[in-house]
Specification:
The protein is α/β, with parallel strands linked by helices. It contains twelve helices and 15 strands.
Length: 377
C-alpha cells in the first residue's frame, strides 16, 4: 500500500534514504548532551529498538566536547540538531553523519549576515565532512520573514520556507539533503507535506508530527498523518515523537515500525469523526534542550488534572524548553513552557505568570476554568 516514491536517493553514511530505499525510522535522545552517560544510554536504547538514525542536540562548545565523547563510544549513525548556533557546524561535523538546521533559527546569530550565506556555509561544511543535511522546518519556530509574509497561514509559511531553502542548497551545489516539515496538528502536517511534495517531488521527506504528546493520543495523531502521506508515496524517513520516560524512548521506534508495517499491509485504522473535538493536549517528546526532567511528569499531571474539561474545544500545550516552547504555546489556548525550576504559564501569546512545578497546576486550572466559563457565557 506504499507506492513507489519519486524522490532521489541521498545517503547518511551507509544508509540510503529516498527512492527505492526502505523507509528509515529514527528518533532523538531526550537527555542533556552534557550528561554523556545518560545520552549514551539513550543511544543504546534507541539502537536496540532498531533506530536507523539517532539525533542529538548541540547548543554550545561544551555540548560539542561531549558529543565527541559520545561518538567515540558508539557506531550509531548520529545526526545533530544545531539549534540556534549554526556556526557550531564546523566543530560538530567531524563527529556526525547528518546535520539538521532549522531555518527559523538562522536569524538569531550574526543578524547582519544574509541567510543565503549562512546556508552556503552549512552546505560547504557538510560537504567537506561527508555529512547529509536536514532542512527542519517547524511550525513552532517559523522564520520572522515568513511569518510576516504569510500571517496566520502557517501551512503556507512552512511549506514555502522549505522550498526556498532547498533552492539555497541547490545554489550551493549541495544535494545530499532531506526536508522535514512539522506541526503539532497532523492535518496541517499532511497539507504542508503534500504541498511541498508537489513542488519538489525530487526531495526526500522526513515525516513527523511534532509534539504529538503522550501515548495513545500521540501515536494516533502520528498515524493519521503517516497513513495519509505514505499511502500517497510521500515520506522517506519517519519519527514518532512521544512524551515518555527516558527508559521508554525505544517506544518511538517500535511504534514507527508498527505503523509502517500496518500501512504496507493495508491495515488502516479508522479515525472517529470526533477525534479532534474536545480538549487537545500537545506536548513535546523531550530532548537535550529540556532543562528539567520534571517536565515529563508535569505533562502527565496536566493530562490527568484536565480530564474534567475533555468535552471543551481547547488546546493546552506543555513544552519542555525555550526553543519551540514560546512559539507552540502562542498557538494554544493555554500553554506551559518549562525552565530549570519554573514553568511559564501563557494564555495564548500573553504571559500569565511564572510558577514552580508544584504551583503551576493550580494556576493552570484557574485559567482553564476561566476560559470555559467565558465560552459558556
Amino acid at each position: 500500500m506504499i507506492p513507489k516514491r519519486e524522490t532521489r536517493t541521498i545517503h547518511v553514511r551507509d544508509l540510503a534514504i529516498g527512492g527505492e530505499a526502505p523507509i528509515a525510522v529514527q528518533s532523538m535522545a531526550a537527555t542533556r548532551t552534557q550528561d554523556v552517560e545518560a545520552t549514551l544510554r539513550q543511544v543504546q536504547i534507541l539502537n536496540e529498538a532498531g533506530a536507523d538514525i539517532v539525533r542529538i542536540a548541540v547548543d554550545s562548545k561544551a555540548d560539542v566536547d561531549c558529543l565527541a565523547e559520545i561518538r567515540a563510544e558508539t557506531d550509531a549513525r548520529l545526526s545533530v540538531d544545531l539549534q540556534e548556533s549554526y556556526k557550531l557546524a564546523t566543530l560538530v561535523a567531524p563527529h556526525v553523519d547528518k546535520i539538521r538546521y532549522n531555518p527559523g533559527h538562522l536569524h538569531h546569530h550574526e543578524k547582519a549576515r544574509p541567510i543565503p550565506e549562512k546556508v552556503a556555509f552549512l552546505a560547504e561544511t557538510a560537504g567537506e565532512h561527508g555529512c547529509a543535511v536536514r532542512i527542519g522546518v517547524n511550525a513552532g519556530s517559523i522564520a520572522p520573514d515568513y511569518k510576516e509574509r504569510h500571517g496566520d497561514d502557517r501551512t503556507s509559511a512552512i511549506a514555502q520556507c522549505a522550498a526556498d531553502h532547498c533552492e539555497l542548497l541547490d545554489a550551493a551545489d549541495f544535494h545530499n539533503y532531506v526536508v522535514s516539515i512539522k506541526d503539532s496538528d497532523p492535518r496541517l502536517v499532511v497539507e504542508a507535506n503534500q504541498r511541498f511534495a508537489e513542488a519538489r517531488p525530487d526531495v526526500p521527506l522526513h515525516l513527523g508530527v511534532t509534539e504529538a504528546g503522550m501515548p495513545p493520543d500521540g501515536v494516533i495523531k502520528t498515524r493519521i498523518a503517516f497513513e495519509q502521506l505514505l499511502s500517497c508515496g510521500i515520506g522517506d524517513t519517519i519519527r514518532v515523537s512521544l512524551t515518555v520516560p527516558f527508559d521508554d524512548k525505544g517506544l518511538e521506534i517500535v511504534e514507527g515500525r508498527a505503523i509502517l508495517a500496518d500501512i504496507e499491509a493495508g491495515r488502516f485504522r479508522s479515525v472517529p469523526k470526533n477525534f479532534f473535538d474536545g480538549l487537545n493536549i500537545i506536548s513535546c517528546p523531550s530532548c537535550s534542550r529540556v532543562e528539567n526532567e520534571r517536565f515529563i511528569e508535569l505533562a502527565e499531571e496536566v493530562k490527568e488534572m484536565t480530564r474534567y474539561a475533555a468535552e471543551h474545544d481547547l488546546t493546552i500545550a506543555v513544552m519542555g524548553c525555550r526553543v519551540n516552547g514560546p512559539g507552540e504555546t502562542d498557538d494554544a489556548d493555554l500553554g506551559l513552557w518549562c525552565g530549570p525550576s519554573r514553568v511559564n504559564l501563557k494564555r495564548g501569546p500573553e504571559d500569565a505568570g511564572s510558577y514552580t512545578y508544584e504551583e503551576v497546576l493550580g494556576s493552570l486550572r484557574v485559567e482553564l476554568d476561566a476560559l470555559i466559563a467565558a465560552r459558556v457565557s
